[in-house]
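seq/struct pair 1
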Amino acid sequence: MNKNTILGWATFVMVLMGLLLIGLGIFRYDDVAGWGFGAVGIGFFAIAWVFSSLKGRV
C-alpha cells in the first residue's frame, strides 16, 4: 500500500465515523450531548476533506 491508498482508506474511515457520530447525535441523544456529537461528526468530515485533498500531493 502506498501513501495515496492509505490516505484514501483514512478518508473513508473518517467519513464513516462522522456519519456515525452525527447519527448518534440525531437519533440517540436529545439533549445538549446531541449537539456535541453532531459538532464532532462535522469535525470528522473536515479532517476527511483534508485527507482527501492531500491524496495526490503527498
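seq/struct pair 2
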Amino acid sequence: MAYSDLELLARIVKCEAGGEGLNGMRAVASVVMNRVNITYGEYGRLHTVREVVFQPRQFVCAMETVGGQYNAQNLYNMSLEQTHWDVAEWAMAGNRLTNLGFALWFFNPYSPECRPFFPSQVGEFAIRIGDHCFYNPTAAYADT
C-alpha cells in the first residue's frame, strides 16, 4: 500500500505503542523522527519516515512475517484513531519529548529493569516510559 509518511508514522505509533498512553506513543514517534532527522551514523543515510519504518529488522510491526509465521500485529492491520493521527502530526511538526533526549532506539524488556546499553554499546539508556526502555546514541554510534 502507498501510505503517506504521516499515515505510516500513525500506524507504527499505534502498532508499537498503542497501549502505552500518550507519552509512550509520543516517545515512539520521537524515535522515528529522530532517525529521520539525524545526519550521521547508520540512520543518517535515511531521510523519510518510509525509509526508517521499512529499514530491515528495525520494527516488528513493519514485518508481515516473523520467524516464518504471519505477524497479525503489523502496521497494515491497525485501525487508526484520531489520537494516532494527532501524535504523528505532533512529531512531524518537530515536537519531541524533552526527557527522551535524542533517542534512536526503544524496546520492551519484559522485565522491570532496562539494560544499560541497547542494541549494543551504541545506545545508552535514557528513560523508561511505560513498558519501553529508550536509548540515546553514544559516541560509538557515529561509526555505524
